[in-house]
Write a structure and sequence with these properties.
about 270 residues; alpha+beta; Gyrase A, domain 2; RNA Polymerase Alpha Subunit, Chain A, domain 2; 2 domains; 4-stranded antiparallel β-sheet; 12 strands; about 20% helix; about 35% strand; binds zinc ion
């Protein structure tokens, strides 16, 4: 199996994998989405709330804030020695105390203060509630690890998708260089070079096949490789994107090993 990074940013990674079948590609996608744990606020203690927002809405909004995750220091509550009751190895406390003075005040995720500097909101700019003059909130929130299968707020990814690797070919013997494909392709795959049409950046091809429909001479064919996939992974901010891929692969390897051991004993 070969992996090539095509594009990398702080919160996303785009890579090509060759030598993988579709079942395995989908298992990787589902592991990243549903099995890899991430931190989220799961319990909220509202000590004071004189804002117009109901306590339940406040708790729900807090739960949806992506929280940076430290997978090495925290246990999933069900795997923790405290048996899920909540201890410093499976739970992190964040507090929020804000009071509006004479003017309106917007409370942001950055106003949450955490007992662990590694477990903080992934962005400081997520609005939680708007306080009118003299309104106040005092909240204690408990973040823990969970999986996307349990609740979507624990998903470490906002997007994980893959597509087949496109193979775009132009038959020079049929092509009459009319240039229609150059105009219609939304991804600018085709270019006129002298008296021939050539292709560029074919990995960007969205497989829409508009070029095939518009090409009257039938010179263009779009196919795809069956054992190679282009993955796009976009982190919610809880984990770096490459950590998501590596950790998901480890998790899948472990689950496969358990399944093989189990099959071996039957
Ligand atoms: Zn615990």
């Amino acid at each position: 199996m070969e992996i090539k990074i095509i594009h990398r940013e702080e919160d996303r990674v785009h890579f090509l994998v060759e030598g993988m079948d579709v079942a395995f590609a989908n298992a990787m996608r589902r592991t990243m989405l549903n099995r890899l744990p991430a931190m989220a606020i799961d319990e909220v203690l509202i000590l004071e709330n004189t804002s117009v927002m109901y306590d339940e809405m406040l708790a729900q909004r807090l739960g949806l804030i992506p929280i940076t995750t430290d997978l090495d220091s925290y246990n999933l509550p069900e795997d923790c020695d405290c048996e899920g009751k909540g201890c410093s190895l499976c739970q992190c406390t964040l507090t929020l105390e804000k009071e509006a003075g004479d003017e309106e005040l917007v409370v942001y995720s950055g106003d949450l203060s955490s007992q662990d500097p590694k477990v903080i909101p992934a962005s400081n700019e997520i609005p939680i509630v708007k306080l009118a003059p003299n309104q106040s909130i005092i909240i204690e929130a408990y973040a823990r690890l969970g999986t996307g299968g349990e609740n979507a707020k624990f998903q470490p990814v906002s997007t994980v998708a893959y597509k087949y690797v496109p193979v775009v070919s132009v038959d020079a013997s049929k092509c009459d260089q009319c240039g229609v494909c150059v105009e219609v392709c939304p991804k600018n795959i085709f270019v006129i070079e002298g008296d021939t049409i050539s292709t560029q950046n074919t990995l960007d091809c969205a497989l829409c096949e508009i070029c095939v429909k518009e090409c009257e001479s039938g010179a263009i064919t779009i196919d795809s490789k069956k054992d190679a996939f282009l993955f796009k992974v976009e982190s919610s901010g809880s984990l770096p994107p490459e950590d998501i891929v590596v950790r998901a692969a480890e998790l899948l390897k472990e689950r496969t090993r358990i399944a093989l051991d189990f099959a071996g004993t039957l």
